[in-house]
Predict the 3D structure of the following.
Amino acid sequence: MADKTVWFITGAGRGMGVDIAEAALAAGHRLVATGRNTKAVAGAVGEADDVLVVTLDITSLVSAEAAVRAAIDHFGRIDVLVNNAGNFFAGFFEELTATQIEQQLTTGLVGPMNVTRAVLPVMRKQRSGKVVSISSTAGIVGQEFCSAYAASKFGLEGWMESLRFEIEPFGIQTTIVEPGFFRTQLLTSESTTYADLSIDDYAERTAQTRPAWEAMSGKQTNDPAKLAKALVTVVDQKQPPLRWVAGARQLQPSSRRPTSCSRRSMRTATYRRPRRRRALKQT
Ligand SMILES: NC(=O)c1ccc[n+]([C@@H]2O[C@H](COP(=O)([O-])OP(=O)(O)OC[C@H]3O[C@@H](n4cnc5c(N)ncnc54)[C@H](OP(=O)(O)O)[C@@H]3O)[C@@H](O)[C@H]2O)c1
């Protein structure tokens, strides 16, 4: 029991967070399962000696600090933080209100910062720890109808990439996870908010794009349970990767395919996969 690592996961009441929590437990770790609705979190992950359910709204630093205190009181340490909680404000930039943009950035970027800010003093004291943040393909590829979400995920990537250099000297490692499409509740009305405004110039494209997104809910290609199992294996490595692309890439619904997106995708693919491809061709 003493050498079991402690995983602290945000958004563990539904979606990918539940799968990650279950995979961490199955791998023999202890778990701090957090969420805004502790009843839902407890129902999703179950009760066990190795599980602590704690309330946490990632948009509040005070809430994050209280959750970390509860985790330390109970387990005495935090080895792995998984910044998983998220939501999706979908729509064209101009049709999203300034408040919606702010809400997206608050949950997608400031939220993980809040929780990490609360956890880092613990990890610095330990001189060990792993900070894992769930980004997205939208954190490396821009796409219409995703401008707010992509802004939050690009921000998350830049922050994590920089944070790495700041905390590595304390024995703290970072991993950015970039999932493709997974069958969670992200595209349901509980997690997706469509643009509040309506502008004539966008009307036709909105009329095409929104139903395409809505139709995809529950039909995403990839299985989050598989991602979760693989994520735990990846993070459990002595030296986890700085970036981990999870699940097949798939173009998001769009009224047209932006060339910038295609170019960027190709650049990313060339950057990530050349060695393996070349090695396969040579054999
Ligand atoms: N599913 C995909 O295809 C996909 C692809 C790329 C990246 N991602 C990323 O994966 C992560 C998990 O998303 P998911 O697909 O599992 O979505 P999901 O099924 O909608 O689950 C979202 C989770 O985040 C929680 N959450 C939202 N706002 C929160 C807040 N302020 N404080 C605490 N918890 C909050 C939700 O809790 P409540 O029940 O309290 O709302 C829920 O547990 C997100 O960061 C998302 O951007 C998902």
